[in-house]
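Forwarding the complex inputs:
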Amino acid sequence: MGRYLLKKAGAAVLTIIFVLVLNFFIIHIAPGDPARILSGLDNPSPEVIQTLREKYGLDKPLQVQLVTYFKRVIKGDLGHSIVYDRPVWTLIKERLGATLLLTFTSAIIAFVLGSLLGAYSATRQGSKVDAALSFVAYLLYSMPSFWLGLMLILVFASWLKILPTSGMVNLRAPSTGILHYLDVFWHLILPATTLSLVQIPAYYRITRSSVSGVLKEDFITMFRASGMDERKIFRKYAFKNAILPTVTVFGLHLAYVVTGAALVEIVFAWPGMGRLMLGAIYRRDYPLLMGIYLIMSLSVAVTMIVVDILYAVLDPRIRYT
Amino acid sequence: MRKYVSIFVALVVAASMLAGCAQNSTPRPKEGGTLIVSHQDDPISFNPDWKTDDYAYPINQNIFNKLVTLDPRYNIVPDLATKWEVSPDGKTYTFYLAKNVKWHDGTKFTSQDVKWTFDTIIQKKGTAYNNLQAVESIECPDDYTVVFKLKQPYSAFLGFLAWYGTFVMPKHVYEGTDWTTNPANQKPIGTGPFKFVEWVKGDHVTLEKNPDYFKGAPHLDKVVFRIIPDANTALQAFLNNEVDVAGVRPPLSEVGKLEKTDGVKVIKFAAPSRYYIAFNMRKAPWNNLDVRKAIALAVNRQEIVDKALKGLGQAAKGFYTPAIAWAYNDKDVLPERNLQEANRLLDAAGLKPNAEGIRLKIDLPYFQGSEWADMATVIKANLKEVGIDVNLQQLEIAAWMQKVLTDHDFDITILNGFQGPDPDNLRLRVGSNGNLQMMGYSNAEVDKLLDEASQLTKVEERAPKYKDVQRILSQELPIVPLAEVTSIYVFKSYVHGMPVEDGIGKVTFSDYSLVWLDKK
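Prediction (whole assembly, two chains):
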C-alpha cells in the first residue's frame, strides 16, 4: 500500500507539472494583454502600458517568464497578482472558505440524496415513482445552473419573500457569534440547493443503473432463493456492491470544488473562488490564474488518491500492491 | 478661465435656489441610518490613482477628494480647492485649498499632499499620467496654495484634474514606500465624507461617517457597497429592499418597469458618451469614402436605439456629444437613411453584387453584453439590405482590445465611450496619434485644429475649432455615430439628497455625503 501511494503521488506530481506548463502556454496564447486591460479603455496611454509591461515582466520572452515562474513555485511562492498587486496565495485564501462551504455542502447533499433516490428507483424499476424520478432527473440534468438559480431567487426571495436573494450575510442587521453562523446558513440555502439540484442527476443515474445491475446478479438471486428478506439483501449486499461507481462520481465532483461553482457564485453573489477565477480570466491575470490552476490540479490529484484508498476500504476485494 | 468661474457661480446660485425649493416640499434631513448600494465587482485596491479601476471609483468618491471634481452633470465644481485662478497666458493654475481638512487618521492635510500625489502619478505613471503631460512643475508657496506650471497652455487641464485617477492621497502614509503595495491600499486613509471600515472580499465594502468632514458631517452613519455581479440578481435585491441604491445598472429592458414601480425613483438624462461605428481605413474598401458613406446611409440609427437600447437613448445626429453643448456642431450632421443612394455608392465603388446579391463579406468584432449583441444584430440586418454580409464576432473585452486596438484585424467595429470631460477628448478618438484611434485615420487639419483648440483659453475661441473638426468628420466619415448614451440612476424614493438630485454643483456622481433616509 505504501509503495502504491508513493507511486501514485509521484505520478500526480508529474501530471501537475505537465498541466501547469500546458496551462501556462494556453493562457498566454489566448489573445489579450493584461497591461492594456489595466490601462483601461477610456484613455490608454502607451507609456502607461509599457510601464505596466515592464513592472510585471510581461515584456520578457515567454520561455523566460515560464522559467521565472517555476523557480518561484518550487520555493513555494505563487507570485503576485498583476491586477491586485498582492500575493496570489493571499487572494486565494480569502476566497477558499466561502467556496468550500458552498461546494462541500452541496456535494454531500447531492451525493446522499442522489444515490438514495437512485437506489430507491432501482428497486422499483418501471413503477410510476421511478418514471417520475427519472423524468425530473433528466429535467434537472439539462438545466443550466445560473438559470435555475435565478428562478429560485424569483420564487423564494422575490415572490414568497422567505429567503434572501444573494450574498453571505445580512448587511442590514450584522450579527456576531452563533447568530452570524445562522445568518450564513440562511444565505447558503438557495445557492447550495441550486448546486445540489444540478448535481443530483449524476448520482441518481449512476446509482440507479449500478444498483439495478447488481440486483440482476446471480448471488442476489441466490439470496432471494434462500428466502432472505428483500430489504436485508439490499442493505447488506446489493448497496455496498453498487456504491463504488457513485463514489467515483463523488470524487470527480469533489475534485472541482475549488472552482466548479463559478456560475452559481455569480448569480448568488457568493464571494468564492469561481468568481476570482473568472475575473482573472477576463483581465488576463496570469500569475493568479496559474495559482488557481495549481490549487485545482492539486485538489484533483489528492482527491483521486483518496478515492482509490476509499475503494479498498469499501470493497475488500480491491487491494493495491 | 473666467468662463469656468462664471459657470461655477451660476451653478452655485442655481443649486442653492434648488435647495431652497426643496426645503419647502421635503422635511429636514434625518440623521443616521445605513445606505446600502449594490456594486458590480471588487475594487482592485484602494490606491485611487495607480490603475484604471471602475469598481473602486464610486467607493473612492466617498473616501477621497480631488482638487476639483465633476458633478453628476459633468460640471467642474470645487473639492479640496475652494477656488482657483488661471494666469492670462493659460500656463499657470493656482489652487487655494480648504484649511480645515484632516486625513482620516487625524493628520493635517496640506498642499504637500497635493504636490506629492501629482508628482507620483507623473513619475510612477498612474492612470491619469496621459492627462498630466502638460505639467512642468508643481509648487507649494504655502500650506494652502498649490501652483501647477504647464509647459504650454492646456485648456482641458482642469477638466482632466476633475475626472479620473486624480484623488489626492496622503503623503505621510505613502512617502518612501511602494505605492502599489502600501498597506493603505487595503485600508485607505482619505479626506472624504466617509471613513473606511472593512472590505470583505467579494462581498461588501463598509464605510462609516467622518464627523470631521471639512464640508460638514454627512447625515448617514454608514454606507455599505454590496457586491452583486449579476444584473438580474442585483435588480431583485433592490426590489426586495436588500439594497437602497442600484449601483449595478439594471438590464435596460427592465427600466420601463422600474419607472412604474411604487417607491422607486428613476432619473435619466443624456450622458456625454456615445456609441459609434469605427472603420478600419487601413484596408480596402474602407479607405474609400463612398463605401463609408454607404454604411452611414444604410444603418438605421433609430432602430438601434429602439431595439438595442430599448428606447433609452437618442439616435446620433452630429459628430460630437450634444451633452457638451458649447462644442457641439448641430449643422454638419449625418445623412438620413437612404438605401437607394447607399446601393448606388457601392455600385460606383465597384462592389457589384454576386448571384446571391452579396457585394462584400465583412467582420464586425464587438464586446460581450446584450446591448452590444443587439446593436451588432441590427447593423447586420441593415447592411444585409445593401448586399453586405456581416460576420458577427462576439469577443470578451481583452480579446477585442487585442484584435482591434493592437492587431487592427477588423473591417468595422462598434464601441462607446466617454467624450469628456472636455472636447479635447476628440484628440484621443480621431487625432492621428490618438490612443483610441483604431481607424488608421489621419488628417493634418483635424490635428492642427485640435492642438490649437487645446491651447486656447476661451471657450468662445475654442468652440469654432471643435465645430470645424466635426465638419471635417462629417465629410470624411472615419466613424459613424450611432446613438447617445443615457445615464440611468435608480434608487428607492425614501433616499433623499442623491447627488443626481440635490448634488448638482456640489458633489460628484457617487458622493453620498448629502444623502439621508426617510424610512420608518
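Chain B has two domains: 2-224+493-517, 270-487.
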